[in-house]
């Protein structure tokens, strides 16, 4: 029996669909936000990054459900999505009032960090169009039933944007299940998004309710504690066989409490500096664990989006190979490669991911 039973590709318009906010990322390069005189612009968003990675790196048919205020900033974000090859049929356009009193588009100022100075993000996303999405606004029955989607992905960043956002996640996941679509959810805890609406206690309340609608649960070394309350000893210390074993014990508790889960996976990261991390991953399915190749001392250009690229690599592996060990290797390799380039989204190719997952090196290719 397959680890993951997806709908046939032939009766589905899309291999994967993401639900979440897409913001413009303003990147000061090697400067600070507070001292920059120019910014390079990218698009990004935790849930969207997965759909883009599955399209641009892995060649799958993907789309995104999101919303923008209908102005030039929203149209710029749309243009980035189009450049990424992600279908834009399900973008919801909201009339703009001229100044942003009622609806806006999200901005994310992000500096990369270097050495002893950690990466830093400053979000400007109040009253955004996607945060105002409500149950009933999207025709999920038509998307999952009439058009067909093999895999639906969303996560805790979108769910934190408003009380209605969490309700939309539940509505979408239930519709997906009615039509045989696999549902994945990345916990993706961001303290700044929860601090004004109840903090970690509220994050746990929301996420504990939502994971009951999920088949594949993803997170990083902090998410399972912050979002679900599972303690993991030695979090953040240098990665070792002991720390991996601690995460395996935590995952065993998660799957005992939530027996409906088909796959649980976590990235493992220990921060030596902003530009050097230890990197790995552990995944569970059908009572078995698989651990990705441990990469100590991984050099990083831009760490933002590494977890999202892990998610897209893992999802591709599960859909393509039906082998947990291969899937977690593809996820970890894709995440590692994504952190060697600027921006939230992956610039890696499938050949590069396959080579690194198979033990390839960083020798010059000629």
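Sequence proposed for the structure above (366 residues):
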């Amino acid at each position: 029996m397959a680890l993951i039973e997806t709908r046939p590709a032939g009766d589905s318009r899309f291999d994967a669909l993401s639900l979440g906010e897409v913001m413009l990322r303003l990147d000061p390069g090697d400067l600070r936000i507070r001292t920059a005189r120019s910014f390079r612009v990218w698009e990004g968003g935790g849930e969207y990054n997965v759909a883009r990675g599955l399209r641009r790196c892995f060649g799958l048919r993907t789309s995104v459900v999101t919303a923008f205020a209908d102005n030039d900033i929203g149209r710029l974000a749309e243009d980035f999505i189009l450049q990424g090859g992600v279908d834009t049929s399900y973008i919801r356009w909201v009339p703009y009032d001229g100044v942003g009193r009622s609806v806006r588009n999200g901005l994310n100022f992000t500096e990369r960090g270097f050495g002893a100075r950690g990466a830093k993000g400053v979000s400007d996303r109040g009253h955004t169009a996607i945060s105002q999405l409500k149950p009933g606004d999207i025709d999920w029955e038509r998307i999952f039933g009439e058009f067909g989607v093999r895999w639906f992905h969303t996560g805790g960043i979108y769910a934190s944007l408003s009380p209605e956002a969490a309700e939309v996640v539940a509505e979408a996941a239930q519709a997906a299940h009615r039509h045989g679509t696999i549902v994945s959810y990345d916990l993706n805890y961001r303290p700044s998004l929860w601090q004004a609406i109840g903090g970690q206690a509220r994050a746990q309340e929301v996420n504990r309710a939502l994971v009951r609608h999920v088949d594949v649960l993803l997170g990083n070394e902090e998410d399972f504690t912050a979002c679900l309350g599972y303690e993991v000893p030695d979090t953040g210390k240098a990665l070792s066989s002991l720390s991996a074993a601690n995460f395996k014990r935590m995952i065993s508790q998660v799957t005992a409490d939530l027996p409906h889960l088909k796959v649980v996976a976590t990235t493992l990261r220990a921060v030596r500096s902003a530009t050097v991390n230890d990197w790995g991953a552990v995944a569970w399915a059908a009572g078995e664990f698989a651990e990705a190749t441990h990469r100590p001392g991984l050099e990083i250009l831009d760490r933002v989006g590494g977890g999202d690229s892990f998610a897209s690599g893992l999802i591709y592996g599960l859909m393509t190979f039906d082998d947990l060990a291969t899937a977690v290797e593809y996820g970890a390799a894709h995440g590692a490669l994504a952190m060697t380039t600027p921006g939230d989204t992956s610039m890696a190719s499938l050949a590069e991911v396959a080579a690194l997952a198979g033990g390839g090196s960083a020798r010059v290719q000629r």
